[in-house]
Design a protein that fits this description.
The protein has three helices and four strands. The protein is of the alpha/beta class. The chain has a four-stranded parallel beta sheet with strand order 3-2-1-4, with helices on both faces. The N and C termini lie far apart (31 Å).
């Protein structure tokens, strides 16, 4: 994934339906990946962010996966229940 020097990338963990992702984008970040286990929430995320990598279980994601699929990450957020 090619990025400019001024690109600020956001990885969303425990994304829910993307509330934190929307706020991050309003703040100028670009959401480059999402991790969400709930199937219904994943459907919502897929509709609004169809072209980014998404994982279902955080335990199945490695740092190498994130770097390969998302590039450099500037901000990592987590929405905990």
């Amino acid at each position: 994934m090619s990025q400019g020097a001024d690109t600020v990338n956001h990885l969303s963990c425990f994304s829910g339906i993307g509330g934190i992702d929307i706020a991050a984008e309003w703040a100028g970040f670009r959401t480059v990946g999402q991790i969400e286990k709930d199937p219904y929430s994943r459907k919502i995320l897929s509709k609004h962010w169809p072209d980014i990598p998404r994982w279902g279980d955080i335990r199945d994601v490695s740092g190498a996966d994130l770097l390969r699929e998302c590039g450099q990450i500037t901000l990592m957020s987590g929405g905990f229940p």
